[in-house]
Write a structure and sequence with these properties.
This protein is elongated. It has helices at residues 11-22, 35-44, 57-64, 82-91, 126-137, 147-174, 179-182, 188-203, 205-213, 218-237, 241-252, and strands at residues 2-6, 26-30, 47-50, 73-76, 95-101, 114-121, 141-144. The chain starts with a strand and ends in a 12-residue tail after the last helix. It has a 7-stranded mixed sheet, sandwiched between helices. It has 264 residues and is an alpha/beta fold.
Length: 264
């Protein structure tokens, strides 16, 4: 069986190319602008995976969708699900499953990592069963949900999280902070924050920017964030440590103890 990956030259695309080849599948790679290869992919491949930046996902789906055979499977692995799934259903007649691997290209395998699937069209059920078996056999934790629920959760897990990172980094930049002068004083947690800021700002600025600006649930989350910041700022200005302590302790009951993931 041939599997096509559009965007297979990116980090996650290369990860999945290696993964499928290790299982004995033939893999065809195409960039999003390689029309000739896309035509071949639509004709040859039983499964096609869209692995491109969020902002061009619709454009790519509109190219590959009409080329897919009705008995094939079209998937995407972008960070948002509602819009890509809607586009795949609109542009293709084949089976459609929206996917989101909840890990990056640095992991060695699927073992122990969560993988979201959003079944959208499953004619005979063949492809959905194939994907569930593939993920389960390789140790992934399958999270099956709707595209809308996925995006609501991602507005916190990705949106609020990355917004906080961006705010932190941009505030330091606005203050013209000299990172070199801070190095002797850095704690391990602060060093990790700087590493994450560098990753977001320098290596994947487009991806993170699109994740935030295209999630329709994030503005409401940020309204709450903004209100919370105002309240904290007020307590700090009043030097009201006791009230701040009580708020932290009360909120702390919502957060369970987290077991540190073993990277191996």
């Amino acid at each position: 069986m041939d599997i096509g990956i559009i965007g297979g030259k990116g980090d996650m695309g290369r990860w999945f190319e290696k993964f499928f080849k290790s299982l004995g599948y033939s893999v065809l790679i195409a960039g999003r602008n390689e029309g000739t290869i896309l035509a071949e992919m639509g004709e040859r491949c039983s499964v096609v995976i869209v692995s491109v930046p969020v902002g061009v996902t619709t454009e790519v789906i509109e190219q590959i969708g009409p080329l897919m055979a009705k008995d094939a499977l079209l998937m995407d692995i972008t960070s948002l699900k509602a819009e890509p799934v809607k586009d795949m259903l609109r542009c293709a007649e084949c089976d459609v499953i929206g996917c989101h691997p909840l890990f990056g290209p640095e992991v060695p395998s699927l073992e122990g990592y969560s993988f979201v699937i959003c079944p959208a069209r499953s004619g005979s059920g063949r492809w959905l069963a194939w994907l569930r078996t593939l993920l389960k056999d390789n140790g992934a934790r399958i999270v099956e949900t709707s595209p809308e629920e996925h995006d609501r959760f991602m507005s916190i897990i990705q949106g609020l999280n990355h917004f906080n990172t961006m705010t932190f980094g941009l505030a330091m930049n606005a203050m013209e902070t000299d990172i070199e002068t801070l190095k002797p004083y850095m704690t391990p947690i602060f060093e990790e924050k700087i590493r994450i800021i560098k990753e977001v700002f320098s290596h994947n600025a487009r991806m993170y920017s699109e994740i935030l600006t295209r999630n329709p649930y994030l503005p409401a989350i940020l309204d709450s964030y903004e209100q919370t910041m105002k309240e904290l700022k007020n307590l700090i200005e009043k030097r009201d440590a006791r009230t701040l302590q009580k708020r932290l302790e009360t909120a702390g009951s919502r957060f369970p103890e987290m077991v540190k993931r073993n990277p191996s």
